[in-house]
Amino acid sequence: MSGQGKVLVAMSGGIDSTVTALMLHKAGYEVVGITMKTWDYATAGGGKKETGCCNLDSFNDARLAAVQNGFPHYVLDIREEFGDAVIENFVDEYLAGRTPNPCVMCNTHIKWRALLKRADALGCDYIATGHYANIRQENGRYIVSKGLDNTKDQSYVLWGLDQAVLSRTLLPLGNYRKTEIRRMAEDFGYPELAKKSESYEICFVPDNDYRGFLKRKVPGLEQQVEGGHFTDAKGNILGQHKGYPFYTIGQRRGLDITFGKPVFVTGIIPETNTVILGDESELDRTEMLVRKMNWIKTTQIKEGMEVVAKIRYRDSGTPAHLFPQDDGSVLVHFFDPAKGVAPGQSAVFYDGEDVIGGGIIQRPALDPQFREIPAPKTTKRKGQNA
């Protein structure tokens, strides 16, 4: 065994994971590559040619890089566990009127768990991925922080990882920019890999048509939910829609209804098959309730703790105060209104570059039940007079 230790590297066949494996190999780690087959169109309900990370070309690219550099490579079939935990959750969340984040679900419950299980079986000390984020140890805790490249930072999707997982995880790309990784691929002798395009779609919905995916997975869904009402915030009927699961908070395009001005989906009520429309200003929320928390930097969350809250992957973040609730959830009060708070999405809280923790958005403040929660005692920013 090398002096650096033995590491199991998740290799999708793309540039980031391949360079991760080659960097660790060059640094003196004993590398073992593993490619996880998480889905295919047969199990996901479609019939098109497989694309993205879970196709034969990607498997071959990962294996070739391993063979050429003298370290072993394995393919791991986790379609069954991935389907149960990620795809079924994806469908269930849309049917509940929420907007899921399958990448967070996969990282938290499938990918890292599967990697650690195989790492133990292969005698590996660590696991590694090509995520653009950093992990460090401080005050007895392992802390996730943002990657150097703000355009590629993936700390948002890692909020669900626990301390035991983080203690064995290496993220070599955290202190590099994407342009540097492309140059590294060329220096390692893989110029074609450096030019390889990236996919931003959900891996099991490579055509980016989640509505078509839902229809394939739930036969008869379109007929079951068609004919519901578009309403305004006061309940006035504005027209008919195609079914509440086919809309998301903040959606503007594809509504097939015109008012002579832009309108947005501001709310979804699955119980009555209702989709609420409104002006852009009606997407503004001052509060949200977040549940299923995982705390990373600290477990001591004091009332009124000041954070920057991100409510979606590409969100720049909004300053906010946290108010822990007795049931373990957190009431979040934004300093300035946040736009498009969507139940089902992840809320991730930052202290500077560090991830404090995160959870799943339960509901925004428009829900009447939400008003049962005591109002925050303070919403003053640091440095302001009370």
Task: Write a compact overview of the structure shown.
The chain contains ten helices and 17 strands.
List keywords for this structure.
17 strands; Rossmann fold; 386 residues; Elongation Factor Tu (Ef-tu), domain 3; 3 domains; alpha/beta; 27% strand; SH3 type barrels; globular; 5-stranded parallel β-sheet; 6-stranded antiparallel barrel
Describe this structure in words.
This protein has 386 residues and is an alpha/beta fold. It folds into three domains: 6-194, Rossmann fold, CATH 3.40.50.620; 225-278, Adenine nucleotide alpha hydrolases-like domains (SH3 type barrels, Roll), CATH 2.30.30; 283-372, Elongation Factor Tu (Ef-tu), domain 3 (Beta Barrel). It is 25% helix and 27% strand. It is built from ten helices and 17 strands. The chain has helices at residues 15-26, 41-44, 56-68, 79-95, 102-121, 163-166, 178-187, 191-194, 210-217, 221-225, and strands spanning 6-10, 30-37, 73-77, 126-128, 133-138, 141-146, 169-170, 229-231, 237-240, 264-269, 274-278, 284-295, 305-310, 318-324, 330-339, 346-351, 354-364. It has a six-stranded antiparallel barrel with strand order 12-15-14-13-16-17. Strands 3-2-1-4-7 form a five-stranded parallel beta sheet, with helices on both faces. Strand 8 (229-231) and strand 9 (237-240) form a beta hairpin. The longest helix is centred in the N-terminal third of the chain and has 20 residues, at 102-121. It is globular and about 70 Å long. Residues 44-52 and 365-380 have low confidence and may be disordered.
